[in-house]
Amino acid sequence: MYELRRDSAEYLARVDEFIKYADSYRVKTKDDDILCPCRDCNNFIRFRDLEEIRAHLIRRGFKKRYTCWFMHGEKIGEWWYQ
Question: Does 6 have pLDDT greater than 50?
Answer without folding.
Answer: yes
